[in-house]
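Why do we bother with holo predictions? Because pocket geometry can differ from the apo form. Keep that in mind while you read this record for zinc ion.
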Amino acid sequence: MTEQPAAAIPPAPPADPNPECPRCGKPPALCVCEGIVRIDNKVSLLILQHPQEQDRELGTARLTVLHFTNAIIKVGLSWPSLAKILGHPTDPQRWAILYLGSVKAAALLPDRDIVVVNKNGNAVDHQEQALREIEGIILLDGTWSQAKALWWRNAWMLKCKRVVLGPERPSRYGRLRREPRSDGLSTIEAAAMLLARLEHKPEIETALHASFDRLLARYRETHAVSRARRPRRYNRA
Ligand SMILES: [Zn+2]
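The structure, written out:
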């Protein structure tokens, strides 16, 4: 330990330069935790987040998990099995992972917004039955390359079902963020779509979209304020 020279006036305790909400991990200006509607979900949700995913402001993984009574987020690169993550035995074939490939739902089955695909990226037969078998959903959270790294490091994912999404409208992120996946959705939007459809509860989508809209509104507000404070010389308009 280094002895600090005694100062005449003791310095004030330093303010936390990075305060964040303990639940959602966001700066207070962007926290929408107090308005969260909790959902008692039957289809489980597991979000695996790459350790370098650092979108503290616009990331939605933690916010998504806070919505559900049956949801887990794990941060890491690899896990030996799905059972190890969950802490109990499970059949990986009853879990579906949101597939990263370039397959588009509309190109496979245009009348469906969730399509179960096989290892070759083709729609499986008996879609309804395949969807009914799903007990849990796995979402990979990170950039395109981070999500791909998670996919390649976890061989057990090959045993899971694969689903692709064909959302009717583009992501609510709009121009705020360039999304790498072909369906272009944020983690919260993908979870909303999957769980609402699988549980036949449109209110799940309504609740999650409401939170996401509030987050985006806060984000736009905060950034409009910081833009307004910027000196004129930075204004290129
Ligand atoms: Zn919060």
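The pocket of zinc ion is lined by residues 21, 23-24, 26, 31, 33 (CB under 6 Å).
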